[in-house]
Write a structure and sequence with these properties.
- The structure is a single chain.
- Strands 16, 17, 18, 21, 22, 23, 24 and 25 form an eight-stranded mixed β-sheet that branches. A seven-stranded antiparallel β-sheet has the order 1-8-9-10-15-12-13.
- The N and C termini lie far apart (about 70 Å).
- The chain is globular.
- A hairpin with an 8-residue loop joins strand 19 and strand 20.
- It is of the alpha+beta class.
- The chain has 24 helices and 25 strands.
- Helices cover about 35% and strands about 15% of the residues.
Length: about 700
C-alpha cells in the first residue's frame, strides 16, 4: 500500500515537472521530462531532485544506526527530556518551552519515523505536525500562542519569545518533509497562508526583531519558500524571497572577506552587532579567520544561504563564496575529521578545543542542500568525511547520551577539562557524555543528522535518471526513463571497503542516465557493468552512464583508497585513507558522576593506554610500505566502536615522555631521548571515544 501511494504521488509530480526547466546537460542527452519536482522559472533549474521521504531505505549497519536512534533518545526524548519536549511544550499548545528545542527534535524524529516506517514514532511526530496544522491563527501565524503577560521564568525552559521568526523556520523544514512523505494538502494551505502573513509582517517586524538568530539562519526559511513556489507558482512567494534575502545576514559578503587586523572585543561579539539594516562598515570587518569569531552553528547554517539564493540570482559568485568559506574554515579552524573548531564562537584549529554537535548536524544539512543545487561533487566529499568521522563518535552507541563538544585530540573526558570558552557557564561538562551536559540545544538537534543523510543517498535527475552521490548500504525506489519503476539496491562495506555494488530491478527495459560520484581521493577508479569494465569520464567528480538498462543489471564501482598524511595545527600530522581519518586506538575506563545539578548524571572516560606518541618523518614519507592496512572480519553490522572496527592500521611511532598534558603540544621534535619505536594501532576516527588524531611530527636524523 505504501509503495502504491508512493508511485501515485510520483506520477502527480511528473505533471508538475512538465513546468520545470531541464538543465543544459540533460537537454543535450534526452528529451525525457523529470518525474520529480524541479525549480520553476525564474528559478535556476537544479541538477539533482529530491525524492519522496521514505523512498530511500537504509540497509545493514546504516539501518541499525537508525534503529539505535529509535530505541534511544530520538525515539524517547519526550520521556528523557519531558520538561521541555513533553506535553507542556508550546508547540503542543502548552505553557512551557516555546522556542527551538521542540521543533529541533521533530526535525529528526519525523524523517526517522517515515524512513523506518515506525508507526509509534510517526504518532509522536504527528502530534506536533497536527497541532501546527490545525492551530494556525487567522492572520497566518503558526506556532506557540504568544503570552498576554510575561510568564514566570522556569530554569531550563525557553518560554519565549514565542513570536520569534527563528523557531518557525525549523518547523517549516518539518512540514516540508511531512508533505514529501504524505502529500497532505493541508501543508500547502498552511504554508501559503503563513508565507503571506510573513510577507505582510516583515516590513514592520523584521527577521531579527526579537532575536538575531533568525537573520543568521534565514537560509532555511528561503529554502522552503522556493520549494513551495515550485509546487504552487504563487508569485507572492518570489516577492517574499526577495524580502527575506534583504533582511538576512549578508553571509556571502562575509564569506568573500579576507583576513584583516580587526579583533573581536570579547567572545560574545558575534551576537552584539547591529541588526537589519546592516552597517556596511561593520560587516566589512567580519571574516572567517577571526578568533574568537562568528557563532559556529550560525556559520554551519549560513553556508547554505548564498547557494539557496543562487537559485534565483544565478550568480556563480555565490557558490564560489561558499567554497572560499570552507577553505578559510579549514585553514584557520580546521580539524582532520572535516569539521572546524567552534565552542560557540570560532576558536582556531587547536586539536584539543571543541566542535559543537549542533554545528555537525547543521553543516551536514547545509552541504546536502548545496549538493542538490550545484551538483558539485566536492561538497559530497566533505559531507561524507564529516558523516563517517565526526558524526558517529559524538553520540554513544545506544544513542542515549552525547558530547556537547568533541575534539581531534581528546585523551581524557572529565568535568575538570578547561579547554573551551564555555567552561564557566557549562560547569566543565562540555566534553563528557550525558543527556544535558554542556548546553541542551544539541540534545534536541542531533537527531536530524543520520536520517537526512539517508534521505540524500540518492536523487532523481531532470532527464529522468538516477544519481548515487553518497555511499552506504541502502536501496531506493523511483521512476526513471518513460516512467519505468526502478528498485536500486546498493550493497557495500563503504566507507571501510573500496567496492560499491548496485543491482537494478526494473519493471521494463529503460534508457536513462545513472550518475555516480567519483570521490576526489579515489585512485584509478573503475566501473564494471555486469562484470565488464566500461570507459567513463568523471568531469567535476560525476560519472554518467547513459544506456538502456535491463532488469537484473549489475554495476560495481571500485574506489581504491590510498594512505596519505595531512598537516594541521603547528605542523602536527594526521593519517587518512579514502574518506576516513585514523586515530590512535586508546582503551578507556568509563566512570559515572552525578553532581545532582542541571547537567544530570554523566560519563567521564579515562585512558588505560599510553597516548603520547609522535610519527617520524621517514614513516610519513613511505606510508604504503611502512603502514599495514588490516581489514578485520566484519559481517556488515554496527561498526562504530573499538570492538567492532572493520579496519585498522599498524605503524611505527615514538613515545614522547615529555608530552604529559594534552594542551601542551610538542613541536619540532628530534629523535634524541625518544628511545626505540614501537608498533601502534590506528582505527577509524568514528570508532573512537578517546583518541590522538593529530600527531607530533618527528624529524628524521
Amino acid at each position: 500500500m505504501r509503495k502504491d501511494f508512493y508511485f501515485r504521488w510520483s506520477i502527480v509530480l511528473f505533471f508538475i515537472g512538465l513546468f520545470s526547466c531541464n538543465s543544459e546537460s540533460s537537454q543535450k542527452k534526452t528529451t525525457l521530462q523529470p518525474h520529480y519536482l524541479n525549480n520553476r522559472a525564474p528559478l535556476r533549474p537544479n541538477p539533482y531532485l529530491e525524492l519522496p521521504l521514505g523512498s530511500i531505505k537504509p540497509n545493514g549497519w546504516l539501518k541499525e544506526q537508525l534503529e539505535r536512534m529509535a530505541s534511544g533518545m530520538t525515539g524517547n526524548l519526550d520521556i528523557v527530556y519531558s520538561e521541555v519536549v513533553g506535553e507542556r511544550n508550546g508547540w503542543l499548545g502548552g505553557d512551557g518551552d516555546g522556542w527551538e528545542r521542540g521543533p529541533y527534535w521533530i526535525d529528526g524524529l519525523l524523517p526517522l519515523a517515515f524512513i523506518l516506517e515506525d508507526e509509534e514514532l510517526k504518532g509522536k511526530a504527528m502530534k506536533w505536525v497536527n497541532w501546527t496544522l490545525t492551530h494556525q491563527a487567522e492572520s497566518g501565524y503558526i506556532g506557540p500562542v504568544p503570552f498576554e503577560e510575561d510568564p514566570t521564568p522556569e530554569a531550563g525552559i525557553q518560554k519565549g519569545p514565542r513570536k520569534d521568526w527563528w523557531p518557525k523556520m525549523v518547523m517549516l523544514k518539518v512540514l516540508k518533509q511531512y508533505y514529501q512523505a504524505t502529500n497532505d494538502a493541508r501543508v500547502i494551505e498552511v504554508l501559503t497562508k503563513y508565507f503571506h502573513y510573513q510577507l505582510n509582517e516583515l516590513p514592520s517586524h523584521p527577521l531579527d526583531e526579537l532575536s538575531f538568530w533568525a537573520n543568521r539562519r534565514a537560509g532555511d526559511n528561503l529554502e522552503v519558500i522556493y520549494w513551495l513556489y515550485n509546487i504552487t507558482g504563487d508569485q507572492k512567494l518570489l516577492e517574499l524571497g526577495e524580502l527575506v534575502q534583504e533582511q538576512t545576514f549578508p553571509w556571502q559578503k562575509v564569506f568573500e572577506s579576507e583576513p584583516n587586523d580587526y579583533v573581536f572585543a570579547d567572545i560574545w561579539e558575534y551576537n552584539q552587532g547591529k541588526r537589519y539594516p546592516y552597517e556596511p562598515a561593520e560587516i566589512s570587518r567580519l571574516n572567517l579567520a577571526q578568533v574568537p569569531g562568528l557563532h559556529t552553528v550560525n556559520v554551519a547554517q549560513g553556508l547554505k544561504q548564498p547557494v539557496v539564493y543562487y537559485q534565483k540570482s544565478g550568480d556563480p559568485s555565490a557558490v564560489n563564496s561558499v567554497k572560499n568559506a570552507l577553505a578559510m574554515l579549514k585553514e584557520y579552524h580546521g580539524q582532520p575529521q572535516g569539521m572546524y573548531g567552534g565552542d560557540e564562537p570560532l576558536h582556531g584549529n587547536s586539536p584539543v578545543q571543541g566542535i559543537e554537535f549542533c554545528s555537525i548536524s547543521e553543516e551536514m544539512f547545509s552541504l546536502e542542500t548545496i549538493l542538490k543545487i550545484t551538483g558539485d561533487a566536492s561538497f559530497a566529499d566533505l559531507l561524507e568525511k564529516i558523516t563517517y568521522n565526526a558524526l558517529p563518535t559524538q553520540a554513544s552507541d545506544d544513542f542515549t547520551s552525547r558530547q556537547y563538544f568533541q575534539a581531534a585530540n581528546q585523551v581524557v573526558l572529565s568535568d575538570e577539562m578547561d579547554f573551551s570558552y564555555e567552561t564557566e557557564h557549562h560547569g566543565g561538562t562540555d566534553f563528557v557524555f550525558g543527556e544535558l551536559t554542556g548546553y541542551p540545544c544539541c540534545t534536541t538537534n542531533m537527531h536530524q543528522s543520520w536520517p537526512k543523510f539517508v534521505q540524500n543517498l540518492f536523487y532523481a535527475t531532470p532527464d529522468a535518471g538516477v544519481a548515487a552521490l553518497l555511499y552506504g548500504p541502502s536501496s531506493v525506489e523511483l521512476l526513471v526513463g518513460n516512467g519505468e519503476k526502478l528498485q536500486l539496491t546498493e550493497t557495500t562495506g563503504f566507507p571501510f571497503r573500496e567496492s560499491v555494488q548496485f543491482e537494478l530491478n526494473l519493471s521494463a527495459t529503460s534508457d536513462f542516465p545513472f550518475h555516480l560520484r567519483i570521490p576526489n581521493w579515489a585512485v584509478n577508479p573503475t566501473i564494471l557493468i555486469n562484470g565488464e569494465s566500461v570507459a567513463f569520464d568523471h568531469t567535476n567528480g560525476i560519472a554518467i552512464i547513459q544506456r538502456a538498462w535491463k532488469d537484473g543489471d549489475q554495476v560495481e564501482l571500485k574506489l581504491p583508497m590510498q594512505l596519505k598524511s595531512s598537516t594541521w595545527y603547528e605542523g602536527m600530522v594526521a593519517i587518512e585513507r579514502g574518506p576516513l581519518v585514523y586515530s590512535l586506538k586508546i582503551e578507556g575506563e568509563t566512570k559515572t558522576k552525578d553532581r545532582n545539578d542541571r547537567f544530570r548524571a554523566f560519563q567521564e572516560v579515562y585512558p588505560l593506554d599510553p597516548w603520547n606518541y609522535g610519527l617520524i618523518e621517514s614513516t610519513l614519507n613511505d606510508l604504503e610500505s611502512l603502514v599495514e592496512v588490516q581489514e578485520n572480519p566484519w559481517d556488515g553490522s554496527y561498526p562504530w566502536n573499538l570492538e567492532s572496527s572493520p579496519i585498522q592500521l599498524t605503524l611505527p611511532a615514538y613515545q614522547i615522555p615529555s608530552w604529559k598534558l594534552i594542551n601542551e603540544v610538542p613541536i619540532g621534535l628530534k629523535l634524541e631521548n625518544l628511545g626505540e619505536s614501537r608498533e601502534v594501532v590506528l582505527v577509524p576516527y568514528g570508532t573512537t571515544t578517546l583518541r590522538i588524531t593529530e600527531f607530533p611530527f618527528i624529524k628524521s636524523e
